[in-house]
Amino acid sequence: MLNLIEIRKDLHRIPELAFKEIKTKDYILNILKEFRGIKIHTFDFPGILVEYSHGKGDYTLFRADMDALPIKEETGCNFASEHPGKMHACGHDMHMTILLGLIEKVISSKIEQNILFLFQPAEEGKGGAKRILDTGTLDKFPIKETYALHVKGDIPVGTVSTKPGIFFANTEEVDVLFKGIGAHVALAEKGIDALDAGFEFYRLVNEKVKEKFNNSKEILCKFGKMNAGNVRNAIAADCRFEGTIRAFLTEDHNSLKEIVKNSVKEISRKFNINGKCEYSNHYKALINDKKLYKKFVNKISDSKYTFREADKLLGGEDFGFFAEKYTGLFFWLGANQGEEQDLHSSKFLPDERAIANGIEIFWSLIK
Questions:
Q1: Domains within the chain, CATH numbers bracketed
Q2: Are 31 and 7 spatial neighbours (Cβ–Cβ below 8 Å)?
Q3: Using one digit for the tens of pLDDT, what is the confidence trace for 20-74?
Q4: Average pLDDT value for residue range 236-258
Q5: What are the pLDDT digits (tens) for 292-316?
Q6: Are the beta carbons of 336 and 157 closer than 8 angstroms?
């Protein structure tokens, strides 16, 4: 029988960033090779699909994400990250452990069903779900429904939370670059100040978003990083913004993209400067199927767990790609460790008791 607590600790020690989960993949494969009755599919990038074909008809898919974050760990635990500057600060070590425990339970129970277990790389902003789907591997299986969970540090152990319909927003990263002409500040007329253009762009885009959406909490357009120039006494030759746009509705998301694009064009004309915007890492809104939501709530109501209705979030979750293609449900799994830290904190350390809970809840969705 697997020692799931030790497995979680082992995985926590070897955090790896998106599409670089090599040690993680090898560790999981080393466990899976001891199991019988499954078929293992791999990809030309880190990622593992475990096939359990012992029934008739459609498949149920369970997903766990594999990647970590570029964060220096400060938990002080005795199984802390051995990879400097990297940490499982989002609980993916817990998710992988839960999926391994579920696989073991399914195999040992010898249930006559068709189930897929997916260890997915690159959930944290690099589009691992879409990369998996683009391989066509899942198209070989008639998948009826799919599930994923996520540990949550501000929800008590023993409590689960989700909602029907839109759960997470459409999200997309945007980079804006203005490229001017550098010059000494004493000869400013010889240059084109990209920093001036950048400040005006920042003001304009926020003004347009406010005008269009009137401070709506259903959308978000924020630039969290700006770089411009090289020295204090020279006009900045370039100015770069890095930001994100988010909206629950696709039409609002597209409107935000248009606002950014048109603002760049307007500022480029005004300052006679070269400006461009580029989009990347687009995650579709995660929409929970209403029938699966009812099924989930019914299962929880007949169990020892406490259910809490969730709020929709302007966060991103690439399970949305699976929920869009198949019928899907995503839920929070309580893992409060007695501290206030939550996802992406350098001190995030979810309670290991949530591992058994996650396995049990997933198992209830199979039966």
A1: 4-168+285-366 (3.40.630.10), 170-282 (3.30.70.360)
A2: yes
A3: 999 999 999 999 999 999 999 999 999 999 999 999 999 999 999 999 999 999 9
A4: 97
A5: 999 999 999 999 999 999 999 999 9
A6: yes
What is the CA 140 to chain-centroid distance, rounded? 25
For 364, the token pair is 């209830």
Q: String of b and e for 63-95 (b: at least 16 CB within 10 Å)?
A: bbbbbbbebebebeeebbbeeeebbbbbbbbbb
Segment 83-90 mean pLDDT: 97
Distance in angstroms (rounded) separating the CA atoms of residues 72 and 50: 32
Given the residues 65, 145, 172, 351, select the one marked as catalytic: 65
Determine whether 58 is an active site residue: no
Indicate if 65 belongs to the active site: yes
Q: Which entry of 73, 123, 124, 193 is annotated as an active-site residue?
A: 124
Give the pLDDT of residue 342.
80
Tell me how far apart the alpha carbons of residues 311 and 152 are, in angstroms, rounded to a whole number: 13
CA 272 to chain CA centroid, nearest Å: 39
User: For residue 201, what pLDDT is reported?
Assistant: 98
